[in-house]
Every structure is written in structure tokens, then in C-alpha cells.
Amino acid sequence: MKGIVRDVFLGRKGSVLIIVAVALVALLGLAALVVDAGLLYYTKVALSNAADAAALAGVQKLPKYPADAQDTAKDYAIRNGVEVGGVIAEILSDGSTIKVTTSKTVSLGFARVLGFSEANVTASAKARVGTAKSAFGVVPFGVIWKPEFEPPD
């Protein structure tokens, strides 16, 4: 075995072809990793942003109007680029929390060479209506009323 490897890399006839073929497979694998992983990451961030916006929009209708909260959340997710079938909005058992899950199937490009044609990407967000139990670094903001103040001309 050691002699075969030495003959391939030290021999002058045909060794460049073998080295290029091996390097090309490695290069396509790296291209798949970079391009397709970047596409998956971009899709994950977009779905996460849409889920966050939808959860914050839907929670404003809770706890009085849970059906409206679900409809509003789905509407906001769709307006942020999620497909109609890729949004699930549910009110949790406490009645004051909404969970929005977004999903999308992404077609892959270079990864097809490695046997992966598509991937499913999901993101979810929760929002709850209620009072704050504690906060750190919060300072009350106020404006001192001075009736003698006159704006400059």
C-alpha cells in the first residue's frame, strides 16, 4: 500500500490527474458547506425575525381575544415573508402566552453532490402578557415641568 501511494505522488505520469480529482471533491464539499450553510443560516435568521414579530403582534390581543391573537400572529408572519403553510400560532394553556413557529423547506445547491437536496428550517418565538416581576438598571424617566420656559425664536 505504501508503495502504491508513493508511486502515485512521485510518479510523473497521471499523478496530477489523481491529485486534481481528489482536490476537486474536497473543493466541492467546502463550497457546499459555505454556500448552503450560509443559505440555511440566512433562512433561519429571516424565520426567527418573522416569528419574533408575529409573537409580539399576537400577544397584544391576549388574554381577551385568543382567536384574534392567532390570526394577527399568522398575518404578521406572512407579511414578513413566511409562506402561508409555514406558520403555526398557538395559545399555550396559561392563556397569556402565544407561541409562533415558522418553517420553510430550502432547496440546496452544491450539497446535492454530497446527497442532500433539501433541508427543513424552523424557528419559534414565545411572548407572554403580564407584569414584570423584577428589572435591573431601569431608571424612571420624567420631564420637569417649567411653565416659564419659552422656546427660542
Write the layout of secondary structure elements.
Elements: H1 2-10, H2 15-59, H3 66-79, E1 87-91, E2 97-107, E3 118-128
Antiparallel strand pairs: 1-2, 2-3
Features:
153 residues, alpha+beta, 3-stranded antiparallel beta sheet, 44% helix, 18% strand, elongated
What this model shows, in words?
By secondary structure, the chain is an alpha+beta fold. 44% of the residues lie in helices and 18% in strands. The chain has helices at 2-10, 15-59, 66-79; strands at residues 87-91, 97-107, 118-128. The protein is elongated.
The spatial strand order of the largest sheet comes to 1-2-3
Number of helices: 3
Distance between the first and last residues' Cα: 92 Å
- Unreliable segments (pLDDT under 50, ≥5 consecutive)? none
Tell me the series of helices and strands, N- to C-terminal. HHHEEE
**How much helical structure, as a percent, in the residues?**
40-55%
Main sheet overview: 3 strands, antiparallel
Radius of gyration: 28 Å
**Helix- and strand-based class?**
alpha+beta
Total beta strand runs: 3
Average residue pLDDT? 87
Shape: elongated
Proportion of residues in β-strands: 15-25%
